[in-house]
Structures are given as C-alpha cells and as structure tokens.
Please model this.
Amino acid sequence: MNLLRNDALEGAQARRRAQIPDATVARLPLYLRALSELADRGVTTCSSEHVATAAGVSSANVRKDLSHLGSYGTRGVGYDVHQLRDRIAETIGQTQNWKVIIVGAGHLGSALAAYQGFGTRGITIAAVVDEDPALVGSTLGPNTIESVDNLAALVKEHNILIGIIATPPAGAQPVADQLVAAGVTSILNFAPTLVHVPDGVDVRQVDVAVELQILAYHEQRKASSADSGGDE
Amino acid sequence: MNLLRNDALEGAQARRRAQIPDATVARLPLYLRALSELADRGVTTCSSEHVATAAGVSSANVRKDLSHLGSYGTRGVGYDVHQLRDRIAETIGQTQNWKVIIVGAGHLGSALAAYQGFGTRGITIAAVVDEDPALVGSTLGPNTIESVDNLAALVKEHNILIGIIATPPAGAQPVADQLVAAGVTSILNFAPTLVHVPDGVDVRQVDVAVELQILAYHEQRKASSADSGGDE
DNA sequence: AGGAGTTAGAGAACCCGTTCACAAAATCGT
DNA sequence: ACGATTTTGTGAACGGGTTCTCTAACTCCT
Model:
C-alpha cells in the first residue's frame, strides 16, 4: 500500500493516479456544485474562503482537499472558477455520463426517477424496473417501467455500472445479487437492510429512518440537558 | 472539555449523561434494527460478533460502541437481546414518539410520507405541507396536505421538533428559516443546498446525486486502474 | 519600484475513531 | 473443584482527517 512506485517520474501523473481520501471525495461534489453556481453567476475567480462558505466547510479544509488533486490556484489571488470546476469534474468522472438503473418503482423509485438535477451532475436514469406486472409499461418521466426479468439485459444493453435499490427490505439482497451478476459494480441502497456484495463492488447506504433517529438522539440530549442544567 | 467533573460520584449517571461519539450514535440505530430482528426471531442472547455481522461492522467496534452506553453484557455469554435493545432504544430516544413535519409534497415528499417503517422506529409524520394550492387538501396516506402557511401553527400544535425539507433547492433556505422560527431544532434536508441555521439547530443533509457522484468516482477509478494495469 | 495586503500550499500538531491485544469474568465439561 | 473455552470490556497502538501555522507567491496601491 505504501509502496513508492517510481514517483520521481512525474508529479502530475502520480497525483492523478493517487488515491484521494474518502472524506475529500465526498466533498468534491459539493465544491463542484458551488463552483458551478459561481460560474453561472459570472464569477471568474474565487478564494478557498469563498468555496468554503458555499460548501459549508473550513477554508483550510478546502485547500487541503484541492491539494490532493494537484489543482493550481494562484497565491494572493485564488482559483480560476472554470478551471477548478473542470478539474474537479474530471477528477470525479463527471466528464462522462453515468447510466444508472433503478430497481423498484414504488414511491421512492418514482421520486428518484422524477428527480431533476441528475442530468447536470453527469447521471442518467437509463432504466427503471419493478417486479409488479401491474406497474410494467407505465411511464415515469422519460422512462418506461420494465419487468425486473429484463434487469440483466437492460444493464448490458446500456452498459450500466451503477444500480439503485428502491425496493422493500426483503427484496434488497436478491436484487443486489442480480445487479452484481449482471455486471453492476456500484450500488446505492435505499432499503433499510445490509446487502452483501463481493469484493470490488461498492455499496452506499441511505436510510432516512436512521437519519431521523440520529436527529432524535440529539433532540433528546437537548431536552435532557435543558431541564437538568445543561452540561455543555 | 477534558475537565473531570466529580466523576467518582456515580459511574452510571455519568455515563448516561456523557457525550456519545457521533460515529457511535450513527451506528446505534443499526444495532437496534439488528436486535429487533433477533428478538422477533425469538433469539434471547447474542454475542458482539452476531450484532457485528448483522450490522456490517467489526465486533470490536460493536463492543467499543456499546461500552459508551455502559451496557452490561456478560463475559463468556454475550448480551441479552431484549435488555440491550431496550437500552439502545432508550439511549437514542426511541421510547418516545418523535413527530416530524414534511415540507414539500412533491415526488420525494410523497414518497417519504408513504414510507412504511417510520412507525417501528419511533417516528410519526405529523404533518405534510406544500406551497402549491393545487396540492393542499389531497391525502397522502394518513395525512392531508396542508398549506405551508400553516407551518408554524402545525409545528406548535403537534409539538414538532424535527422537520424534513423536501422542496426544490430554492425553497430550502426560506423553509428552514420558517421551521426554525416555529421552534424546530432538527432538520433533515433533501434539497441539494446548504442551509444556514442558528446554533443549537442540527441539520443533516441527504443528497442522492452526491451519493451517486461518489460511486461514479470509484467506478472511474476501477475503470482506469483496469486498463492501465491496476495499481491496487 | 517597493511595501502592504492577500491567499494558496505544505508541514506539524492535534483530535477522533478504529483496530488490536489482553485481562477479567462467566459457562461448561470432566 | 478446576481447567478449558468463550466473550466482554478496556487500555494501547494505529491511522485518517482536520485544524493550525507559517512560508512563498501574487496583486494593488503609493
């Protein structure tokens, strides 16, 4: 892991290929969004402080993050908005359009399919499938709901690498297996269940109830510290 | 911060009031879910290893987390499923029912309002509001969509402390301001925008596009490491 | 031209969280 | 009764990430 592969060779290339820390990767889309807004407003130059306030992080954090992608700002001036935006877009792969398949066309699947704003972030809903025959055939924005039986065929046809699971919990694991078997290597799972996947497949979990439970915990703390003399 | 306030006094009380690390808090709902499933299956005892595999973390991590809430397992045996479940439920405040308001009854708001599975986690959708007069009055499961003008009244009437923003980006900040003004102190924001709130108000951000962008980054890495001789 | 002010970039210090390793406490079998 | 085995709880080591601090480089004003 820490092996130093002839990095005297060339800094830029090494940087390009270097692993960017997860925490940084998670923030790059935020910076990208902020920079796009600045660009739309005609701003041509910005400081790390600008980006920081727009993204809700510290300016030091922004600079450290940007240093990972070897981006060149100019000292005393700041960053060129367009250049930095393009650099980040390139880094996180927004130069290409990623096709995703949504499995499950219930309320959540429909909401995701209808979501405006994937387009501007390099994401296209290429297919929506459901196991309910009653839903197959109905349209969802630009998409037509297809049978889950066609999952593998659709994934291959459209070269889909990313799948979204929007099924009830019980369906999540079988669906994940099907997605992986069809060639999907990244999964965004909205079902409140842990899905097991082979090595090399990434899974990200979004659980709304968990988010609310976390908020509830903090609410409870606020309440209890309020009536017995706040301990903070 | 590191001040030791007469902690010889009593360990349990001190523990109860002690700050539980954020990372732990985020995992407690997962443990709770796992334990509830075990309890439903009639399992009465479990090891940290059980919980760990069910929640997708390491057993050491589980033990460390549980140690923060002073939970008593028995060495050589494990944890009592019911007792541990109750202890966690109590810790994260699931003994009471938290009422939430959903602002924005578009696709996403509707999906959230229809979501089964809040109920079992101590969460109730007490109100759904939207600014579109055309939507006001229609029913969404057990709820009727009301005008956003009633936001403050509803929050107060139901003693709501948690708000969910499911509006387009432009509406997020004004809505957040209204929620805060009405007395809400925790916000779950689905709009892809940073919302500013006063101290004491918690905000959690859920951005589906960002999640997909993170996956896309990793996909890109997989692809590039595949064709130029994997560097990992 | 030179000084004052601004800002990126990088190294160091610090903090938080995870993993490791082990001792203490329980059960079970003999 | 006692040793073997299991499993918790915890202190220590480790690693990643954030913040701090300082230097270098650029602009603007005089």
